[in-house]
Automatic annotation (TrEMBL):
The chain holds residues 313 to 579 of 579 of the full protein. This is histidine kinase. It comes from the Bacteria. Signal peptide: none annotated. It is found in: Membrane. The lineage of its organism: Bacteria, Bacillati, Bacillota, Clostridia, Eubacteriales. Residues 41-257 form the Histidine kinase domain.
Amino acid sequence: EGQQFTVYAAVAEEDKCVLAVVSDISRMKRLEQMRSEFVGNVTHELKTPLTSIRASIELLKSENRDAETRAYFYDVLDMEAERLQHLIDDMLALSRLENMREDPAAHPVSVAKAVAASVKRLKPAAQKNEVTVSCQVDPALYVCCSPMRLEQLFGNLIENAVKYNRPGGTVTVTGAVQREAAAVRVQDTGIGIAPQHIPRLFERFYRVDTSRSREIGGTGLGLSIVKHIAVLYGGDISVESKVGEGSTFTVRLPLACPKAENNSLPD
Ligand code: ADP
């Protein structure tokens, strides 16, 4: 259904032999469309901060700007450069993940430590948004992966839970063994996600509200990275959400034995 084919046919030796080649081009067309969409998205994401950077430079060049105005445009330059840096970092992370079938450097890592490191890094953002983050992760919970990638997975989910929250809201991270896997839930009391967006949420550059997400400072690649990390280590991710009430993202990863731990995350 929905497939397209190209049929090549050749007739040889006075109708004695017929050669037909049926080629499924729907996959090729889909890949080509995805590639061109990706290039379009990247170009747009690069152009937006660049336009702002060029406009700020132009304004800074004129001599009759007071100190306050100049300081404002330097801040804009700083912010847009940071945005470009995030975009490049996320694109590199995603491209590496897309080319990996398994991680030979994976080893048992404490989930509680990875969550704690992510929460620590996001504390200033949570304070700024007036959001309280609390964690309850079983210290005996270990999964086999790279500590850096596990921290990025939880970091992206917790960052979203903080960003798409409301002042005075909460983020609750829980981790426990569930059906013989490590299940980590990141629950927020934020804006929620309407059901029609859920199936596309993990696609690269997919955003529910593009202008709002950009304003908040996202690259649109965070959840795609999360999904790739979960799948790389044999896990999966699911989401439940209600508009106006909040969202819960649940990551499930195969359990690992903690004995061989070689964890480089700080305490
Ligand atoms: P972004 O960088 O835009 O945050 P993500 O890939 O992390 O990109 O998320 C994709 C989109 O999913 C976001 O733009 C936002 O619309 C929506 N989203 C992600 N997490 C949440 C959440 N916890 N609550 C509400 N919406 C969310």
